[in-house]
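Quiz preparation item.
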């Protein structure tokens, strides 16, 4: 229990190298392997419909991409995908998985970096935080999202997905008070907001 609490604190508040150590150890032992969707799971996950609506023919920046399954599971109709994660182990897994997807390989890049300090290399149609924004210290979220907004192409959107809108209501408040949402999807306790 104490180890789990310390791990959670490091994931949000630790230095980049400390975050990397924790996430690397979890990816190394397969803790996040369950997150790789089966075809039926992918078909039911609403995130892919939103990526289709807002990202088709465009570019996607996935901040907190983990082992890159979003890039491999979304429809293959995007121009560019950049996945960013603090875990070098997750990024290595993503690159290995990408070798089996030759038709995507030339349009997908994975970068090991802390998403809270990452500076996007260009502008994007979609910037996605899929279950990752709560690993950013709350006092940095506004500035980070404003930076992301500056890296959206005209008509581009931020998509933020939270697994528990009640537990993370302070983040929901930031999103709703500081940013103009254009679409919201809530199912059970989860929330997906598009800005």
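Solution:
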């Amino acid at each position: 229990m104490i180890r789990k609490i310390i791990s959670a604190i490091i994931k949000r508040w630790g230095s980049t190298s400390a975050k990397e150590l924790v996430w690397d150890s979890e990816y190394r032992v397969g803790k996040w392997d369950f997150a790789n969707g089966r075809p039926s799971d992918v078909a039911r996950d609403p995130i892919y419909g939103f990526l289709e609506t807002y990202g088709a023919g465009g570019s996607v920046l996935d901040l907190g991409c983990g082992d890159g399954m979003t890039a491999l599971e979304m429809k293959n109709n995007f121009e560019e995908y950049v996945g960013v994660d603090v875990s070098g182990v997750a990024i290595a897994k993503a690159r290995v998985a990408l070798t089996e997807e030759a038709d995507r390989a030339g349009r997908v890049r994975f970068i090991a970096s802390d998403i809270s300090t990452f500076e996007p290399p260009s502008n994007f149609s979609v910037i996605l935080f899929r279950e990752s924004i709560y690993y950013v210290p709350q006092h940095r979220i506004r500035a980070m999202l404003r930076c992301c907004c500056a890296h959206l192409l005209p008509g581009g959107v931020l998509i933020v997905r939270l697994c528990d809108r009640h537990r993370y209501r302070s983040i929901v408040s930031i999103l709703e008070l500081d940013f103009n949402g254009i679409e919201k999807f809530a199912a059970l306790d989860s929330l997906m907001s598009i800005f």
